[in-house]
Amino acid sequence: MGYVLRRLLATIPVMAVVGIIVFLLIHLSPGDPASLIADELATPDEIAKLRVALGLDQPLWRQFVIWVSHLARGDLGTSLFTNVPVTQLLAPRIEPTLSIALLTILLTMLTAVPLGTLAAYRAGSWIDRLVMLFSVLAFSVPVFLVGYLLVYTFSVQLGWLPVQGYQRLKDGVGPWLLHLILPCVNLALVYIALVTRMTRATVMEVLQEDFIRTARAKGLGVMPVLGHALRNAAIPIVTTIGVGIALLIGGVVVTESVFAIPGIGRLVVESVQQHDYPVIQSVLLLSAATYVLINLLIDLSYSLFDPRIRY
Question: What does the buried/exposed string (b/e) look like for 9-31 if buried means 16 or more CB atoms within 10 Å of the residue's CB?
Fold first, then answer.
């Protein structure tokens, strides 16, 4: 419990640094939101009044203090363009993004771990070479290019799956799943390649250990031996999964844009184009907080895979 508390407290300075960096990156970037919001025929005086109304005329440090004080009250701010609270903008977009992320992780785990284990067991064979070739290609080809190829093949040519869009879970599991197959496969390819390579490397190393040779000498079959090896190789694999969350967060933005899914990723793209500071800051902070929390949970899970680890 003391370790968990210390780790939670350690996230405070991390999030403080993230908040400062996010605030400076957004506010020091080129472009004036007041000019973008104002009509094209607006005079400089009208734009200046709009800047005052939005608080953009304040010194940078004062804007930061005001922003932090609002965050402390749970207020993520109000969109500069829609004049709608950011929480209301995020609420309907969480389900599509969360659905893509969870299904992508599930697809990755069900595919990458068996592939990596099989490649390690058959190291040097044609199966190993085929798996490694797939990993290299999946990791090298851009996500947006794979997305368009999937749409062209399975939606335009074959007509098996919807081209774009999202169907909410309340409207039925079938339509919801059909609209998520292509986006999740597209996003999972890079993730699968990363986890497959790490699984292969760690399982191959464990298969050379003495306890594995002892297990084989006792007459254990292939599956029990691989089960022992996989449990002992779990910590590096789980760590790689945590690092891959960063890829997942970044990939969702591209995937939602390619497949026209109304999730948080598309909201970020639209907000960047409009210089909508409150929305961009809120999404970046939430993404950073999610990443920090997931890595904390992964660290705590180490003791489940290796009983020798005690906090």
Answer: eebeeeeeebbeebbeebbeeee
Closest listed residue to residue 32, CA positions, set 49, 51, 15: 51
- Round the average pLDDT of the chain to a whole number and report it: 78
Mean pLDDT, range 27-34, rounded to an integer: 66
Q: How far is CA 33 from CA 17, 51, 121, 283, 297, in A?
A: 25, 8, 57, 18, 38
Q: CB-based contacts of 43: which residues, under 8 Å, 6+ apart?
A: none
On the 0-12 / 13-18 / 19+ scale of CB atoms within 10 A, 53 is: exposed
Please check whether residue 86 lies inside any domain of the structure. Answer: no
Show the domain range for 147.
Answer: 91-305
Could you tell me the two tokens for 208?
A: 């050379």
Mapped onto helix, strand or coil, the DSSP state of residue 70 is: helix
**How many domains does the structure of the chain reveal?**
2
Q: Which residue has the higher pLDDT, 276 or 108?
A: 108
Residue 145 burial (10 A CB sphere; 0-12, 13-18, 19+): exposed
Lowest mean per-residue pLDDT among 41-50, 67-76, 77-86, 178-187:
41-50
Over residues 141-149, the mean pLDDT reads 79
pTM for the model: 0.77
Choose one of 44, 72, 100: the last residue of a domain: 72
Statement to judge: residues 47 and 96 lie in one domain: no
For residue 112, what is the domain's CATH number? 1.10.3720.10
122 in a domain, yes or no? yes
Question: Distances in Å between the alpha carbon of 157 and those of 25, 180, 186, 258?
Answer: 43, 18, 17, 17
Comparing 85-94, 135-144, 166-175, 301-310, the range with the smallest average pLDDT is 301-310
Residue 261 lies in a domain: yes
The predicted model gives 16-28 an average pLDDT of: 77
Q: Which residue in this structure is represented by tokens 């370790």?
A: 3
Assess whether 164 and 63 both reside in one domain: no
Residues 298 and 226 in one domain: yes
